[in-house]
Amino acid sequence: MLITTCILPMIMSVQNEYSKETIMIINKIQAKGMLSVVLKDSDGNTKDQRILNNLIVDTGLAYITSRMEDATATAMNYMAVGTGTTAAAAGDTALVTELDRNVVTSATATGASIVYVGTWAAGDGTGAITEAGIFNASSAGDMLARTVFSVITKDANDTLSITWTITLSAS
What we know:
Blueprint: E1 6-15, E2 22-40, E3 46-53, E4 55-56, H1 58-69, E5 78-82, E6 98-103, E7 106-110, E8 113-120, E9 127-135, E10 143-154, E11 159-170
Antiparallel strand pairs: 1-2, 2-3, 2-11, 4-10, 5-6, 5-9, 7-8, 8-11, 9-10
C-alpha cells in the first residue's frame, strides 16, 4: 500500500520593524487523502470494506494552488475506477486502465477538508477494480488524487461506494 503525504513549502520574508533584520518564516502545508471503499451485494450485505491512503498527484497540487489564485477552475466532481495495477506516482495524470467514471454523489467542504462520495450502481463499473481517482471532467481533465489497491471484484449485481477525504493541514 502506498502511503504518501505531499508537503507544499510556503516561505515568506518578513522584515523586523525595530532591528530591520529580515526573518524567514517557513510554513509547510500538507495535502493528504484517505478513502473508504465499500462493496455490497444485491441484498445490501457488505462483501468488502477497506480504508486506503492515496497520493495527491502533481496536477492535483497545481489545481489546489490555482484555486487559491482564481476560482474559475472546474471543480473536482468526478470519480473514476479502473483495473490498472501500476503504483501511483506523483506524475500520474490519469488512471492506468480506466473502467468507469461517474459524477460524484456529493462533495462537502468543511474547514480544511473536503469529502467526496462516489457510487457505482448494479451493472455500473463492473469488474476487477484495482485503482481509483478524482477528476474535474467527465473524461480526461485534471486528476487530484490516485490510489491503487488489491482487487475488489464488483459483480454485475453489486454496488460500490467510495468516500474520499482530502485534508490540508499545517505541519
